[in-house]
TrEMBL record:
Organism: Variovorax paradoxus
A Pfam family matched in the record: LolB
Family under the similarity heading: Belongs to the LolB family.
InterPro entries assigned: LolA/LolB/LppX, OM_lipoprot_LolB
Main location as per UniProt: membrane
Lineage start: Bacteria, Pseudomonadati, Pseudomonadota, Betaproteobacteria, Burkholderiales
Gene that specifies this protein: lolB
UniProt keyword annotations, A-Z: Cell outer membrane, Chaperone, Lipoprotein, Membrane, Palmitate, Protein transport, Signal, Transport
One Gene Ontology cellular component: cell outer membrane
Name recorded for this polypeptide: Outer-membrane lipoprotein LolB
Listed GO biological process terms: protein transport
Length: 125
């Protein structure tokens, strides 16, 4: 997973990831390319947690949780659909699903600014 935010200065984020669950309740583990855990995200109705080592932060929603972990508001509900090849509509986002069958997804946030480019290479288990 890589994310580029065209802010001043440009922000970039990349990590290996494991996504489980659904938009309503799930987990996202982010690890560095060398295998160290960067963060673990957990969400369920009424609960959204970001675990970074022994530090645990609570958030009001999964969307706020994802933004805190990655630096951008990535629409988690749509992300599950996009990874399944469904063109979930999200205001401001333009997914490119042409390569989902080959394990590649790209989505661009055009509004609100700054623009963001999300690229994911994945395997289904």
């Amino acid at each position: 997973m890589s994310l580029r935010i065209d802010s001043q200065p440009v922000q970039t984020f990349s990590a290996l990831f494991e996504l489980r669950g659904s938009p309503e309740a799930g987990e996202l583990s982010l690890t560095s390319p060398i295998g160290s855990t960067l963060a673990q995200l957990h969400w369920a109705p009424g609960e959204a947690l970001l675990k970074n080592g022994s530090d645990i932060r609570r958030f009001d929603s999964v969307d706020a949780l994802i933004e805190a972990a990655t630096g951008a508001a990535i629409p988690v509900g749509a992300l599950f659909g996009w990874l399944a090849g469904r063109n979930e509509r999200v205001p401001g986002w333009r997914p490119d699903l042409a390569q989902v069958a080959n394990g590649r997804l790209q989505a661009t946030r055009e509004t609100p600014g700054p623009t963001a480019d999300l690229r994911i290479v994945f395997e289904r288990s």
